[in-house]
Amino acid sequence: MSSPTAKDYADAYPAATAGEPADGAARVYCTVTDAGELTACEVKEESIVGQGLGQAVLALAPKFKMAPLSMDGQAVGGKLVELYLRIRPPPPSPPPGVRLVVHPTWVARAAGVDAAKYYPVRALRMGVEGDATLQCGIDAQGLLANCVITCEFPKGSEFGGASLALSALFQMELVDKDGQSVVGGMVRLPINWRLPR
C-alpha cells in the first residue's frame, strides 16, 4: 500500500478562508478498484465546514493505493472504504541559518504514563482525543527549548499546552542519524493524544 507524501499534503492544503488557516479533518468514502486504487470518492463529513478540508482529502485520495487482497485473502476490488484524514497547516520554516533536524536519535521521550498525567482535564472528561505539533529549539544538552505550538486539534482543546509540558521530557543525542550536530537546530514534534486505556 502507498500513501501521500508530506509534499502531497502541502500541495493539497486549502487556501486560507477569511484569514483563518484550514485546520481540521474530513471523512470521505471511496470505492477500491481491482488495482487497489481509490476512486469515486465522496465527502461525508468535515470537522469545520467551509475550510476546504473535504476537497483537500479528495485531492489526496488518489495518492493512496491498497494491496489487491486484504489480510484475510479477500479481494478489495469493489469494496467501499472510509478515509479519515487530518489536514494541518504547513509548519513555519525555521529562521534563516537554523537547521531543521529531521532524523534525531531520542535518548529520552515522554511515555504513555506521562501523557496520562498531563492529559487535559476537560478533554479527558469529555472523552476527546486530539493532537498538537510543536516547533522547538535544541540546546547544548540535546534538550528541547523555546517550544511553540504550531498546530492544535481540536482548537482550544488544551492539547497544545499539554504538549508543551511533555516537551520537557524529551532529549536527543547531540549528533543526529545524518551525522550532523543538532545543537542550535530546530525540530518539529508531533504529539498524538489518545484517551488513557
Task: Give the tags.
18% helix, 3-stranded antiparallel β-sheet, 197 residues, alpha+beta, 8 strands, 5 helices
Major sheet summary line: 3 strands, antiparallel
**Low-pLDDT stretches:** none
Instruction: Give the termini distance in whole angstroms.
Output: 29 Å
Can you tell me the overall shape? globular
Number of strands: 8
Q: Structural class of the secondary elements? A: alpha+beta
Tell me the radius of gyration: 19 Å
Strand content: 25-35%
- The SSE string, one letter per element, is HEEHEEHHEEHEE
Task: Write out the strand line-up for the largest beta sheet, numbering strands in chain order.
Answer: 2-1-3
Can you give the mean pLDDT?
A: 91
Number of helices: 5
The level of helicity is 10-25%
Topology, element by element:
Elements: H1 6-12, E1 24-32, E2 38-46, H2 53-60, E3 80-87, E4 106-108, H3 112-118, H4 121-126, E5 130-138, E6 144-153, H5 159-166, E7 171-172, E8 186-193
Antiparallel strand pairs: 1-2, 1-3, 4-7, 5-6, 5-8
Explained architecture:
The chain has helices at residues 6-12, 53-60, 112-118, 121-126, 159-166, and strands at residues 24-32, 38-46, 80-87, 106-108, 130-138, 144-153, 171-172, 186-193. It is an alpha+beta fold and 197 residues long. Strands 2-1-3 form a three-stranded antiparallel beta sheet, with helices on one face. The protein starts with 5 loop residues before the first helix and ends with a strand.
Task: Tell me briefly what this model is.
The chain is α+β, with helices and mostly antiparallel strands and 197 residues long. Helices cover 18% and strands 29% of the residues.
